[in-house]
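Q: What would this complex look like in 3D?
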Amino acid sequence: MRITCPLCGARDHREFTYKGAALPVPALDSGVAEWDAHVHLRENPAGPHEELWQHAMGCGAWLKVRRNTVSHEILAVELAQDAGLVIKEDRS
Amino acid sequence: MAETEMQLAAKSPCAGLLPLTIGDVTLTEDTPAAMTLIAPYKGQEKPLSDALNAAHGMGFPAPNRATGNAEARAIWFGRAQALLVGPVADPKLAAHAALTDLSDGWAVVRLEGAHAEEVMARLVPIDLRPQVFKRGHTARTELQHMMASITRIGPKALQIMVFRSFADTLVHDLKRAMEAVAARG
Ligand SMILES: [Zn+2]
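A: Here is my prediction, written as structure tokens for the whole assembly.
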């Protein structure tokens, strides 16, 4: 399996560390039910899955990777910083 | 009574381990005077690159590239960071970037010879042949189980860096690979 890091190019999967599903983080004032779902409930699909990997042995960047869990085909890769997963800071 | 003067001498990361020549490949240690990690602040990439040029004569490197020369080199060192190797970083750079002194933190070695890439092919998962990995190219990758920085610094020469604490392991792994390549003749 190879993952094409947007910064480094195509690299062997040994350079990457898997974190888990790429989920948007709930707003800090979300209720218990929403946080419980965020922490514990997963779809576990047989097919395309959005997940987070870190290019730990390379550039260190966190990546959002779309991977087919059946074939391990890598369908899309982008820098996690561009994936809109972070909490929106609202200081209004 | 004679005065006793104590002098403490810095010990390089590969002291007692290098130099080493096996077959036509040579492994030597480089001990740059300073190494500084430069991490530009958000939106400061351009002014930082200009300041780096004014102070040290090279622009901020693009991903997978190194700028400068043997005396002063800026090596892309990962996402949004570069390592200035050689001169002490000009304090003016601090207006645009976080500067971290890593001078004693990394071991720096030079692998040189006609078969240097064959030695590396046994240790890293990327193609370092000169037609692919050209002068000015650099990579963050894995060397055995160590996170490494590899830069082409000559037609037959590669610079390899790992954490200082891995210096012994680095030399051990390179030595075994050099022996294996030499044994094939
Ligand atoms: Zn990368």
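A: To summarize the key features: The pocket of zinc ion is lined by residues A 5, 7-8, 55, 58-59, 61 (CB under 6 Å). The CA atoms of residues 3 and 9 of chain A lie 8 Å apart.
Q: Very helpful, thank you.
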